[in-house]
């Protein structure tokens, strides 16, 4: 791998991380406020907050990080599906560690989101935002 490719990967990772932090704040903020209403199960609140953050992150990553503008809706669906797989992971973590084991919901949410973001970056870089003709 050339120095230019390595530098581009590092820049993309940093940009993805910054956008991820913003999405994390969107997700956690919505999660916090909706769960305080105590009208929905915590797992449903997680799906709502994660879904909104996914759309936020897709828009920013598409235009800023990966600069890929073609096949917008197809890429959005792919990104959303990858995100929902990791949302399922965080939801299962919340169910096990909060609902069953009575651990702190914010600690579980934050730790599970960190693992999810790392998985999302790898999958999205190789699949969702792959440019045509590049292997």
TrEMBL record:
Residue ranges of the TM segments: 12-34, 40-60, 72-100, 106-123
Pfam families cross-referenced by the UniProt entry: GtrA_DPMS_TM
Any GO BP annotation: polysaccharide biosynthetic process
Gene Ontology CC terms: plasma membrane
UniProt keyword annotation of Transmembrane helix present: yes
Keywords: Membrane, Transmembrane, Transmembrane helix
Ranges of residues in domain GtrA/DPMS transmembrane: 16-129
Membrane-protein topology: Multi-pass membrane protein
Family named by the database record: Belongs to the GtrA family.
Protein name from the UniProt record: GtrA family membrane protein
Keyword Membrane listed: yes
Location(s), subcellular: Membrane
